[in-house]
Amino acid sequence: MMRTMIVTTFGLGFMRPASGTWGSLPPAGIAWAMLLLGVGWPAIEITMLVICALSCVGCVLYGTWAEERFNKKDPSEVVIDETAGMCIPLLGLTQAHAELAEGGFWRVSLVVGSAFVLFRIADIFKPPPANQLQKLPGGWGVLVDDLVAGVYAAIAMQLGLRLLF
Q1: Which of 139, 156, 154, 140 is nearest to 27 (CA)?
Q2: Which candidate, 70, 71, 74, 149, has a CA 20 to 30 Å from the CA of 106?
Q3: pLDDT for position 138
Q4: How far apart are CA 135 and CA 137, in angstroms?
Q5: For residues 76 and 73, what is the distance between their CA atoms, to the nearest angstrom?
Q6: Residue 27 and residue 9: Cα distance in Å, rounded?
Q7: CB 8 within 8 A of CB 78
Q8: Residue 75, preceding bond cis, omega within 30 degrees?
C-alpha cells in the first residue's frame, strides 16, 4: 500500500485524464504558494530539491516493483517521475522571487504556469535523448526521461525569463 502511494504521488497517478499532469501539480502548487506568500528563495530552492530528491529515490527504489504491479513498462499510474521532473524548471526561478512577488498573483501564476506547461510539453513529446532513456532498466527508465524533460523545460524557462523580464 505504501509503495503504491509513493509511486502514484499519493494517488494522483490514478486521476484521469492525463495522470502525468496530475503528478506534476504538487511541486508547481507548492512553489506557487510559497512565492505568493513571500517565502525567501533559498527555502523554495531547498523545498524543490528535497521534493525532487525524495521523488527520485522513491522512483528508483520502487520503479521495478511498480512495473510488475501494473504489468507495464513505465505505467501511467506511476507519476512520481513527473513529480521529480517538475521540480527542475522551478529551480532557479525563485532567485527573482522578489520581482515575481511584486508582480503579484498574475505574474507568479504566469511564471509557474509557464514552467508547468513547458515541462508537460517536454514530457509528452520527449525530444531526444529523453525518449531513448526510457529503455533504461526499472526505476531508472521510468525516472530519467522525466528529469531530462525537466532540464529542457528549465532551459526554455530561463531563456523566456531573460527575454521577458
Answers
A1: 154
A2: 149
A3: 85
A4: 6
A5: 9
A6: 11
A7: yes
A8: no
